[in-house]
Amino acid sequence: MKYKVIESLCDVCACCASVCPQNAIIMSEQKATIFLDICIGCAKCFITCPISAIEEIPDES
User: Is-above-0.85 flag for pTM?
Assistant: First the structure.
């Protein structure tokens, strides 16, 4: 499973980036961005986000 940021909800707290073991999340002034080619699908960002601004991307199988 991969994850994406719901940009309209993201408050740029950086909780997600701080727990990502692959450093697949970068922060800008406006939002967090998850690089899907680096993401291993561990769900740490999804679990950690205090405002549920990260959602699962369904597998395309």
Answer: yes
